[in-house]
Amino acid sequence: MTDQLEAFRAETRQWLEANCPPAMRQPVRTEDDACWGGRRATFSCPEQRQWLEVMAERGWTVPDWPKEYGGGGLSRDEARILRQEMAALGCRLPLSSFGIWMLGPALLKFGTHEQKLEHLPRIARGEIRWCQGYSEPNAGSDLASLATRAEDQGDHFLVNGQKIWTSYADKADWIFCLVRTNPADKHNGITFVLFDMESEGVSTRPILLISGYSPFCETFFDNVKVPKANVVGEINRGWDVAKYLLGHEREMIAGMGGRSSTPVSKVAMAAIGADAQGRLDDPVLRARIALFELKAQAFGAMSERFTDMFKAGTAHPAQPSMMKYYGTELNKARHELLMAAGGAEALEWESEATRGGTPARDWLRTKANSIEGGTSEVQLNIIAKRILALPGA
Amino acid sequence: MALYLTEEQQMLADTARPFMAEAAPVAHLRALRDGNDPAGFSRDLWKQFAEMGFTGVLVPEGDGGLGLGHVEAGIVLEEMGRNLSPSPFLATSVGAVGALADASAEARGRWLPGIIAGETVAALALEEGARHRPERVALAATRSGNGYKLTGAKRFVVHGHVADLVIVSARTAGGADDAEGITLFAVPGNSKGLSAHAERLADSSIAARLEFDGVEVDGSAVIGTLDQGMASLGRVLGGVRTGAAAEMLGVASGAADMTLGYLKERKQFGQLIGSFQALQHRAAHLYSELEVARAAVLKAQQLLDEGPDKAARADRAASVAKGMVGLAAVLAVQEGVQMHGGMGMTDAYDIGLYMKRQRVLAELFGDADYHADRLARLSGY
Predict the structure, then answer these.
(1) Which of B111, B147, B350, B130 is closest to B254 using CA atoms?
(2) Does residue A256 have a pLDDT over 60?
(3) Does some domain include residue B336?
(4) Taking the CB of residue B220, how many other CB atoms lie within 10 A of it?
(5) Do A381 and B296 touch (CB under 8 A)?
(6) Domain range spanning residue B366?
């Protein structure tokens, strides 16, 4: 068993060394460095496309999905080894995708065989880019109060309403969307549907954020026809799918803390320098960074433990809420320290030195981490109710 | 290795929990305290630890112990923490046993059987100042015949006043702040010239100031390599920091459970106070901190158990664990006292005892500030 895994590790390393272009082994620095695929895919360089294609060919954009759906069919241990070897070589993710992180797991669990065959291989190859239609102007933290209507027209639904905070809706090809099919039942009146963003009646409008970026859109539906074959799970039982998927989203956001791996202390040392004893020449900031990094390392162990327990099926079902809460708060703290370390230079909004204001824009972007996918306060409510069993929560 | 307890470890936990709750609950601590017990712990309980196999948990099977690891030792420590059970377990079965791993066969043969049998109690004499500073060693060991003569003083030696064996760091070369030139010794507690001044601490445990007035030991008392004691000391500290973290995690868990229970029974304004969102969010935040602390502790324990290959990582992980639990546990006891309201200030309620024990364990072998600073130094900033 161990021998087999070690052989797999050696093969994997060899293959990655032979097939991962050097340009794809550089740290991710800007938004363009991430590859999102889709019908209107843009590649920042030919290597980005090549890297996506060779990995997709092998099923390694989704290493642990079944082969028949475009995955690599790897065991848990093999997938872990692949991740480790990719990290060791500094390989970038070949494909960033809400299809992989969010919809895929839900389809694998709730989708029909036909739905899986239709959508999963296209997700794996990066052919279709997905967006998530959940939040509405009046359904944020109280998501289940969503009002986008889907009228039953026999073989299809007619969808009318508005979504908000739809990530990259203006760039997405398809949407997975929560719609109201029974106004009389809050939780059991929601249906999970899939449809093409090119359908007649769909329009999007980007929202300019404090970071100067527009990753989110308002999305409008005006008599959009959605075939009933595109319902995932049962009609009026979409909340089950949504909750399952939210768990994945929370894990994904919680994991963001570890995405950019340069320690704050390194950034601070480069910006501020050392004193005569070789310590960061700003003692109070040094202390703040030291306490932060202590917590960040502890959370690294927590992420490992959560992943292990999740896979063993022993994690508390509400534990992703804790991971999401802690990971996002930590990520915000990290960017506050990065801004302090960068000082006046980190404030530059457009300069070449900051690659177009990356530190400040990233800092502002992280403020959304504890809002999107359920606010920190909602996560604390969930922990209090479901884990601590506190009354009336 | 997966970062959760194995089935065997879970079985040990299932045994240790009812044992400790039965044999050494908080009432046991209160009885020792109220009776002004001169030792500060029960020798009978130490014997029971031996019968359970706990005393030799880290002693290799070849030396008559269980040959288990820091995860298992931590299970015992966590239950001690949860019940505030006073015991020489950490200093003896983790600290001294860890030090003796580098000692002569003669010293091992002399001390290990008594430790395993629950007859020998050991203490760690590593501190000379008020704050943890293991490299700062002024206590001098000078050559004397075939052995050494020790002169100086140590502080904060937990139950050092009744120890049969004292593991002491001494300077055999270099200046007071040098990491080089330190040597560890295994000194019998009844040595001539060794005297102890017992001091009761805030948590009613007893720590001693030890005076070494020309204490003579022979060559077999040297642990590890002469002048290179930081290597052994570093390993010992990795073990006891992780151990203290595990015990403090137990204290914090006990305090959090008690507080959660109170939130579910205390009524004000006609409703359970646990239904107030202000308190729910604080309880949920505390839960999160404790979960993170628990992961950090288990990570350090596993790395320690993976042997010399992982020594450097284990050493850092021990600082992460001790520091993180320090941060989480102080929150647990502060929230505990606050949420118990006036009751939290009374001696009759246990929550205050948890606060006091946490404070002592936080200081022992370095608090969160110390370990954050240490990790920063190790990371080159």
Answers:
(1) B350
(2) no
(3) yes
(4) 17
(5) no
(6) 230-378
